[in-house]
Carbon monoxide dehydrogenase
Amino acid sequence: MSKMKNTIDPAVNYLLPLAKKAGIETVWDRFAAMKPQCGFGELGICCRICWKGPCRIDPFGNGPQRGVCGADAHTIVARNLIRMIAGGAAAHSDHGRHIALTLLEVGEGHAPAYRIKDEQKLRNIAEKLNLAPAGKDIRQVAKEVALASLEDYSRQKYSISCNWAKETLTAERVDKLVELGVMPHNIDAVIAEIMHRTHVGCDADAVNLLLGVIKGALADYTGMYLSTELSDVLFGTPEPVVTAANLGVLKKDAVNIAVHGHNPVLSEVICDVALKMNEEAKKAGAKEGINVVGICCTGNEVMMRRGIPLATNYLSQELAIITGAVDAMVVDVQCIMPAITGVAGCFHTEVITTIATNKIPGATHVEFREDSAFDSAKKIVEVAIDAFKRRDNRKVNIPDYKQTAIAGFSAEAIMAALSKVNAKDPLKPLIDNIVNGNIQGIALFAGCNNTQVTQDNNFITIAKELAKNNVLMLATGCGAGAFAKNGLMTQEATEAYAGDSLKAVLTAIGKSAGLNGPLPLVLHMGSCVDNTRAVKVAVAVANKLGVDLDKLPVVASAPEAMAEKAVAIATWAVALGLPTHIGIVPQIMGSSVVAKFLTEKAKDLLGGYFIVETDPKKAADQLFTAIKERRKGLSI
Ligand code: XCC
Ligand code: SF4
């Protein structure tokens, strides 16, 4: 039996044998032990919604075709899917709520650790939300924007769409979604509605549930969009920054603090406080002071805004600890493996949880509160410095692998770079180059790592193929992490892999923008919630061309998707009109109705549709075919 490689990440490949020798189990060991995985679960035809179950449908047609209550495979698959969407939307939108509440506190003057870093962006948002900010005090504007955002969690009128959904899409898209009855009016209500309609004995109509899937995904979109935009207001809108990625960013002579999770509300303050506590770290013997590094999307957040290096992405989070050089891993919410405290137990590493609703057995909990953010951050840094004193240098193995990575491509940063080419009409150079075919289309890479496939490999393989075909590429989340670690967010990668016309465009823009060379091959747009940055660019292009999003040669790909959040993101990409690839077989194949809807029927309804393809080369072909089809539709 040929064994699939675990990863293409050289740092991980360096450390895995060391882990094995030390008897430390990792995600790949547990994955191997889990095999064979449950076939019913893989197909999505197992139901545990009530205690008459669990029920499972026989996919071969010999055994039961209905659960005890009579639900068939289509109902069960659709219900399982929509509950995943609810999970994803809840995660993203709760993160968004946290940011909105923090902005409200700032507006009210209750959060001394925070301030409004990007006033202009706040005013632009207020304008977009029709809040007439002109002449108003900035704190007043902050309050009004926060409240208008929180309204998207509390509005009771079903007929009024969420502010952040209706003001950020093309008018045509909004009309279409309203007509289909899938525009959310209230994020929380949509999530509650999903839990209700999937309670035993409720919605059994798979197609009706699938429309609910779209609505849930759009609630996810709403929460993500406001999360990104308000984070920029509080912490600054990212601008291009040169930094580094992979485990080689850890430093032997520094107190290494890894910030991991998703929410910048804490990590931003930790970065501030770490700067101030450098001397204390030095006193403790760390010649280089404090070295903050990032993991997963908290890592992307601080990388985009501060140039903090990215240590690693999702699947290799345990390996960061196995270097023996991480003194504290500070986690907030989402995508934190409970396994890390076990690994940390073999070293001196302190795992510090910070959020009351996200604790891990074996971790030290330092509760984080916005009103006393500095104190919490200080305490966390002290725990890290203390742990550093206990570090066993014989156990330190920092892999000598790191890559340069250029990050920080917010929509605003892209517009700024383009305006260096054409100040009056910044979108023109982009659109002209799409129309003349120098840029064939745009691909947005998003989503996670997954043990089902070789870590990072799908991302890199697909990107190299699309680069050859002159496709402009954007990335977020752990996909961005994959590109950063593997050297695709560099100018050298553009030279090495971009097709001639793409290279020429990236070079022209890069040079005008003062980068002394091309833009990187893949533009780092941020964390998972930041996928909406790409929507912002796409909507601007669509509006300028006077077409809807489903006409643009823009595609999305989550080739190593794993989380419920990724399922929600991919689904709203479809709802917005994008051909959207997933490189993992989704757990829906037990229902022909659901599978057909998402891969075919969605196209008629929304313009977007799912492409399921596990072979990365074939996936690249299909994505490029979708781009060409769109070009044909536009007669370009
Ligand atoms: Fe999580 Fe955002 Fe997925 Fe990475 S990409 S594994 S969701 S950290 Ni969003
Ligand atoms: Fe079985 Fe129906 Fe209960 Fe699901 S809801 S566990 S299918 S009886």
Remarks:
- The chain has a mean pLDDT of 97.
- The radius of gyration is 24 Å.
